[in-house]
Amino acid sequence: MSSNPARSAPFGSILTDFMAVAQYRDGAWGPHDVRPVAPLPMHPAAHVLHYGSTCFEGFKAYRHDDGSVHVFRMDRHIARLRQSARSLVLPEPDAAQVEAMVLAVIDRNRDAVPEAPGALYLRPLLIGTMPNIGAAATPSNEAMLVVLASPVWDYFAGGAKALRIFVDDKNNRCAGHLGVVKTGGNYAAALGPTLAARKEFGVDQVLFCPGGEVQETGAANFLLFRDGRILTRSLDSTFLHGVTRDSLLHMAPDLGYQVEERVFTVAEMLEWVKDGEAALSGTAAVLSGVGTLIYQGREITCGAGGIGPHTQKLRAALVAIQTGKAPDTRGWLRKV
Ligand SMILES: Cc1ncc(COP(=O)(O)O)c(C=O)c1O
Q1: How far is the CA of 174 from the centre of ligand 1 (A)?
Q2: Any idea where the domains of the chain sit in the sequence?
Q3: Any alpha helices (H) in the chain, and if so which ranges?
Q4: Which CATH class is domain 5-152?
Q5: Does 181 contact ligand 1 (Cβ within 6 A)?
Q6: pLDDT single digits (tens) 271-296
Q7: Which of 56, 76, 194, 244 to mutate to test the pocket of ligand 1 (most atoms within 8 A of CB)?
Q8: Architecture of domain 163-322 in CATH?
């Protein structure tokens, strides 16, 4: 499968041929069907289009050397989708229903699961479809759950460039209580500051640090490494509780790292990166090294400015589990 189209396509730009769709009506979820990917019929008054009632997930299935396909920590992602649904007062599908839809999509698109270091990226999407433009303060009593899949490649496998990150201590990525929710509006909210920083400083991403406390970037968590230590923000409502972050923190002690989860400031981060490393973690980013921080007009080099050895070591250890090259001692993979 070396000619896999995912190899050269931007992340998420190619979809597989089939998706799964289920509807919520009259107080209950109906059965799903698997159908060719095509536009969905939706009323122009649908709740999601006006009041943003939407949440989603993103996780990956990997093809191992023997051809079998394994999905990584699906239970955690489904739990997060359900938590997002509850926060947004959307009809909450039960875990078994989401799981059945994901498995049906993988099965129907099995041939499209790329070999490592590619993967099949799975994207469940939940939207409020009640047609009522007067429902600003009323939850949607109709909903649709869609599961899409996209063959993706790992762009960092070949030794990508370290990232340039703008440190923003003015803007919030999103409302403080919604950081933990994976909802479309959060990404729309981060877009303006991100594009402005890209234009002014040529950065890849923005690290949001409202009030001078380090949070996360637009679509990934933030970690620091130094002297056998890992520092990352402790869980609270202001940022997304990444499954990749959680996985790395669980693996860290076995790899010789001590984990510190706490609130820390931009000033402390700048101290750490003098001789430490910074990296972004996420399903798409895996663990991507940060080479440069831009703060108050200054360019600050992180460590030696490239992708540091700790970042490479942790990333390789995680990818080895995901791709079946190292034993999955924590039961994170599910053969599907
Ligand atoms: C805002 C944000 N933070 C963090 C993450 C990383 O989460 P995960 O590791 O579960 O993919 C993501 C990606 O899903 C994200 O969108």
Answers
A1: 14
A2: 5-152, 163-322
A3: 47-51, 74-87, 95-108, 184-201, 243-251, 266-275, 309-322
A4: alpha beta
A5: no
A6: 999 999 999 999 999 999 999 999 99
A7: 244
A8: Alpha-Beta Barrel (3.20)
